[in-house]
């Protein structure tokens, strides 16, 4: 049986997850993914939602324990991308399949400045 994590351990876990998810988002934004059924934009937005969720949990725990918010809470949230966004069109078979599913492939994405502070 697994022991229950303390609030401090949960907080550290969420902080680590924020860092990992931001790194994952940046990796996907540069290289794309290989999901045969979903465009890169859908996967990038899913990772973005994980970051938002983890920040919410960090805030809850910090309020409960009356702790200051950690630096990870202020990391900027990546922008929401069009669901049909693709990093590149080099995966020709995948792009062809996605177009058959009705995806309108978009390759232009907004810039993401990971040095800008975020409050949300």
- Strand percentage, roughly? under 5%
Main sheet overview? none
* Oligomeric organization of the protein chains: single chain
Report the strand count.
0
Work out the helix count: 3
Order of helices and strands: HHH
pLDDT < 50 runs, ≥5 residues: none
Task: Supply Rg.
Answer: 17 Å
Kindly name the structural category: mainly alpha
**Which shape, going by the Cα principal axes?**
elongated
N/C terminus separation: 36 Å
Average pLDDT rating? 90
Query: What helical percentage do the residues reach?
Result: 40-55%
Explain this structure.
Helices cover 50% and strands 0% of the residues. It is mostly helical and 120 residues long. Helix 1 packs antiparallel against helix 2 (40-65). The protein is elongated and about 50 Å long. The model has no long low-confidence stretch (mean pLDDT 90).
């Amino acid at each position: 049986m697994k022991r229950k994590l303390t609030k401090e351990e949960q907080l550290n876990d969420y902080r680590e997850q924020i860092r990992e998810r931001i790194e994952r988002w940046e990796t996907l934004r540069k290289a794309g993914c290989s999901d045969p059924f979903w465009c890169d934009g859908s996967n990038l937005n899913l990772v973005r939602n994980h970051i938002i969720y983890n920040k919410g949990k960090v805030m809850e725990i910090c309020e409960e324990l009356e702790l200051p918010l950690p630096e990870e809470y202020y990391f900027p949230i990546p922008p929401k991308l069009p669901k049909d966004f693709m990093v590149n069109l080099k995966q020709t078979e995948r792009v062809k399949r996605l177009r058959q599913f009705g995806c309108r492939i978009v390759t232009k994405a907004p810039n993401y400045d990971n040095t800008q502070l975020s409050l949300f």
